[in-house]
Each structure stands twice: as C-alpha cells, then as structure tokens.
Specification:
Layout lengths: L11 H8 L4 E4 L4 E3 L1 H12 L4 H7 L4 H4 L1 H16 L26 H31 L5
Antiparallel strand pairs: 1-2
C-alpha cells in the first residue's frame, strides 16, 4: 500500500513570514503557492544545475520552514505540470478553473485580453481532459492516469 507524505502544517508565525516574501502568491496552514515569476526563475536555475535548497534560500525562503517534501518535490511537480500541458500558473493545481465569460477580446485592453484568453484556454484544456477520461471509461471501463 502506498504511503502518502504529509506536509507539516505552517504556524501563524510561519504563514506571516512566508506571505511577506514577494515570491509567495498565497499561503495557508497546509499549502504555499508561488508566483509565476518564482516558478519560471526556479525552473531556469534548476535546469542550469542549482539545487532546490540553493534556489529557495537565495529567493528568501527558509527551507526548514518549507520542509524537505516541499523543497525537494517542487522541481518534480513543476516538470509534471509542464509535461501535462497545463503550464505554470499561480492557481493551485487541483483547483477548478472557472468557466470563462463570453467576451469580445477586441474590446479589451491587450493585457486583459491575453489574461482572459489564457483563462479560457485553461478551462478548455480541463474540459478536453475530462472528455478523454469519459471516453476511456466507455472503451475499457477504467481510466488511465
């Protein structure tokens, strides 16, 4: 039987400390979400051969607060997201992408238009993955992971 790794809970003081870092998008008692900027910088530096500990430390994080599972598992999770086609995002990986509004992108400012298109693309990708799983269930009665 597989044993799940449990992250340690952050204390109120640790949450305050982590949220003050400019690379923290969001933090609660169980999770920390990093900014898109941090994820891109981390990945670039990791691919050049720097260790996770070196990168987190140089970006202002106390690795003893984050814990080994978060620090050493982070590059694996980033690569897995990229390989799956979901791309990097500040949104938690398991959170549902909201259905996009019907918008005429030509009427929006460029930056807002791009953000709206990206949100719609994430939503459509989620729908495609859902449809694939449904189709697989119909074909052989068990989804692939």
């Amino acid at each position: 039987m597989l044993q799940r790794y449990h992250h340690t809970k952050f204390t109120d003081e640790q949450i305050k400390q982590l949220s003050e870092n400019k690379f923290t998008s969001k933090v609660d008692y169980h999770h920390i979400w990093f900014t898109l900027e941090f994820q891109n910088l981390f990945l670039a530096r990791y691919e050049k051969g720097e260790s996770s500990v070196e990168i987190f430390t140089s970006m202002g994080y106390d690795v003893s607060v984050l814990g080994d599972n978060r620090v050493y598992g982070f590059p694996r999770r980033l690569k897995k997201r990229l390989e799956s086609g979901r791309g990097l995002t500040e949104v938690h990986g398991n959170s549902k992408v909201e259905e996009p509004e019907k918008v005429d992108y030509n009427t929006l400012p460029a930056q807002q238009s791009v953000a709206s298109m990206q949100r719609e693309l994430r939503y459509l990708r989620q729908q495609v993955e859902f449809l694939k799983k449904i189709t697989e269930l119909g074909n052989d009665k068990k989804p692939r992971n």
